[in-house]
């Protein structure tokens, strides 16, 4: 996922208040409730019990503390979905057929993860006739959902009939008003970290890899797409078929339904979007094919067939999500000048780090996001050159420093202990930027070519596997540490991975372009340089953003007016630059900018932009205005954005 400014995926959930930003030690509840449709079955909830008592024990590598599934007893190999999408009821309903391998002779019940699912029936399909199987749904835990225990009676192929709830945590239903076209409703799923269980009953763990297929029925005017083999030529006849032949972790199952058209960008790349955004998106992201080819040259073949983008409606509250073959992307990065395409590089990089070699549990997320952030910077350098590369790294470093200033020690550790917490809490800049900085240090220490060779071998070695931090350490012991004993040490690796904060002698990325911006800003502020004497002719949006974000909190009315007059900032087309400027507008009560504050907040739903602006309005004596804008805008916002910004503007309710 993409996080903050440049990386905005799941962290958005934390920002939205969905994740647990405070440490919440609520133990998992494992009480089993009788399902009304079944007779009594004695469920084996040993795994769940282990989860409940986990807090007292040392953390065990490879144990997924966020899944009830008894993966030591059963492996689900394939899931075949047959689903109806009902926009009126806001439900997805149908069947999931699971192919199951038993790993022992114990005959224990199969335990799956669910969240707010209605389970109607479970049938065994092995024999000539279907056999009704007994099942129980456990009590719901706030973080984990409910364990579904199924008495398999020796069956290896079972069919679960179920329906999602309208408030399913991984399914977002958008009204026509929340789309760009305003004509048709839209649906998208977001499974990471543990929301797949809210729309499919399954072993919901990143170490449980499955193949899947799906038949999805939709209203006729709409197109369904999945993280699978999409066919852009498929007739819009209300029924779509998908195959995902490569084994993926559960959090990469994804579905979207909407008024979608397709445009090719290259031989293997294309974009799906609402018709009104299609051409602009295809133009903005036309470098995607070049990124794909460049990444393959360094890190080995792209193994997922096609790489397409799905542009979500403006209300999409996140940055992007690396669903395989089809990354989900916010439209707010369509800037007109390719300045925000690091998001695409990031989601593409996940095709190697994350989707191909996957974190085995959420504690190991840094293996996904740290490697991906490092690769993102490298891809940006390959496509856009060294200046851009250094600016991207410097901005990431600023993000990391600000997180480390705010977070407590436990959350600054890359291999984070998430027991008893919502795993969405893992998404900070630590796994992303600290992980990336660690790899950057390795690159600097042994040389880029050598490190690239290592990475390429690493991706080959662990392809289509889910690995732990300890698997990584064992691998480097027989590779890097054996090859470069004079330059690298295991202690250093362990300090990076298990210690909070930043190591004193860690690399400090810097950007000559930003140093120039700092110089100019300071000179203007101390009166030694006029604005029209600053050469901004070659500035990118990165420099503009850095220029504005580095301004002091308080500027005089004359200074604000001078900045606007010289650089036309109130009309800035780039959303990042506009957002940085509008923060200054609000903080300094710069009246000519408020019309733009209004139009900005009523046209965009990405919460990374909304929340700081609403908060700034409130903190600067503009609560009434903030509420007025919010009441007008909220019909176009995602329910999660409504929720979190309501909490800012109406804290008493
Ligand atoms: Zn990511």
Overall description:
The protein has about 650 residues and is an alpha+beta fold. It is about 35% helix and about 20% strand. The protein is built from 20 helices and 22 strands. The protein has a seven-stranded mixed beta sheet, with no helix packed on it. It has a five-stranded mixed beta sheet with strand order 16-17-18-20-19. Strand 2 and strand 3 (about 90-100) form a beta hairpin. Helix 4 crosses helix 6, helix 7 (about 385-405) packs across helix 8 and helix 18 (about 605-620) packs antiparallel against helix 19. The longest helix is centred in the middle third of the chain and has 21 residues, at about 385-405. It is globular. The structure holds zinc ion. Zinc ion binds near residues 1, 9 and 346.
């Amino acid at each position: 996922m993409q996080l903050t400014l440049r990386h905005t995926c799941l962290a958005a959930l934390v920002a939205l208040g969905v994740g647990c930003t405070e440490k919440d030690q609520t133990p998992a509840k494992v009480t089993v409730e009788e399902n009304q449709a079944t007779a009594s079955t004695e469920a084996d909830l040993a795994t769940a019990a282990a989860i409940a008592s986990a807090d007292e024990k040392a953390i065990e590598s490879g144990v997924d503390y966020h899944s009830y599934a008894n993966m030591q007893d059963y492996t689900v190999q394939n899931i075949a979905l047959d689903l109806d999408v009902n926009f009126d009821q806001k439900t997805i309903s149908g069947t999931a057929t699971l192919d199951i391998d038993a790993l022992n002779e114990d005959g224990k019940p199969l335990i799956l993860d669910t969240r707010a699912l209605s389970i109607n029936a479970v049938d065994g399909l092995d024999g000539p006739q279907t056999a009704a199987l007994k099942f129980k749904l456990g009590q719901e835990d706030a973080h984990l959902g409910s364990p579904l225990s199924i008495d398999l009676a020796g069956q290896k192929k079972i069919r679960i009939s179920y329906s999602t709830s309208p408030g399913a945590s991984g399914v977002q239903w958008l009204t026509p008003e929340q789309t760009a076209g305003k004509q048709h409703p839209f649906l998208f799923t977001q499974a990471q970290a543990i929301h797949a269980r809210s729309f499919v009953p399954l072993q919901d763990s990143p170490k449980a890899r499955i193949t899947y297929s799906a038949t999805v029925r939709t209203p006729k005017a709409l197109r369904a797409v999945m993280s699978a083999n999409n066919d852009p030529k498929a007739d819009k006849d209300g029924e779509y078929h998908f195959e995902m032949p490569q084994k993926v972790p559960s959090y990469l199952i994804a579905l979207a339904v909407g008024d979608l058209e397709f445009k090719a960008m290259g031989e293997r790349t294309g974009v799906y979007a609402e018709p009104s955004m299609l051409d602009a998106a295809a133009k903005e992201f036309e470098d995607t094919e070049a990124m794909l080819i460049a990444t393959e040259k360094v890190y080995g073949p792209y193994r997922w067939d096609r790489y397409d983008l799905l542009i979500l409606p403006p209300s999409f509250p996140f940055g992007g999500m690396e669903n395989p073959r089809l990354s989900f992307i916010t439209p707010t990065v369509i800037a007109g000048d390719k300045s925000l395409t690091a998001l695409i590089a990031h989601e593409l990089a996940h095709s190697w780090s994350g989707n191909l070699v996957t974190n085995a549990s959420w504690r190991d997320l840094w293996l996904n996001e740290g490697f991906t952030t490092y690769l993102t910077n490298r891809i940006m350098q390959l496509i856009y050159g060294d200046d851009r590369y250094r600016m991207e790294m410097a901005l990431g470093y600023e993000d990391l420093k600000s997180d480390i200033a705010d977070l407590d020690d436990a959350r600054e550790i890359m291999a984070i202990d998430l027991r008893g917490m919502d795993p969405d809490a893992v998404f900070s800049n630590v796994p992303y930027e600290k992980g990336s900085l660690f790899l950057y240090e390795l690159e600097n220490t042994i040389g880029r070519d050598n490190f690239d060779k290592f990475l390429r071998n690493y991706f080959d070695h662990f392809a289509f596997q889910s690995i732990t931090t300890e698997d990584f350490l064992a691998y480097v012991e027989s590779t890097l540490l054996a090859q470069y004993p004079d330059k690298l040490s295991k202690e250093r690796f362990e300090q990076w991975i298990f210690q909070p904060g930043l190591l004193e002698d860690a690399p400090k990325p810097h950007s000559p372009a930003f140093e120039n911006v700092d110089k100019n800003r300071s000179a203007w502020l101390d009166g030694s340089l006029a604005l029209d004497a600053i050469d901004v002719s070659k500035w990118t949006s990165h420099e503009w953003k850095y220029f504005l974000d580095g301004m002091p909190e308080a500027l005089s009315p004359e200074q604000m007016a001078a900045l606007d007059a010289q650089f036309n900032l109130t009309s800035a087309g780039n959303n990042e630059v506009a957002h940085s400027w509008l923060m200054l507008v609000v903080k300094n009560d710069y009246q000519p900018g408020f019309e733009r504050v209004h139009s900005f907040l009523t046209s965009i739903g990405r919460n990374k932009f909304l929340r700081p602006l609403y908060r700034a309005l409130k903190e600067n004596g503009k609560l009434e205005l903030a509420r007025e804008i919010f009441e007008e805008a909220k019909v176009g916002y995602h329910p999660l954005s409504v929720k979190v910004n309501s909490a800012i503007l109406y804290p008493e309710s």
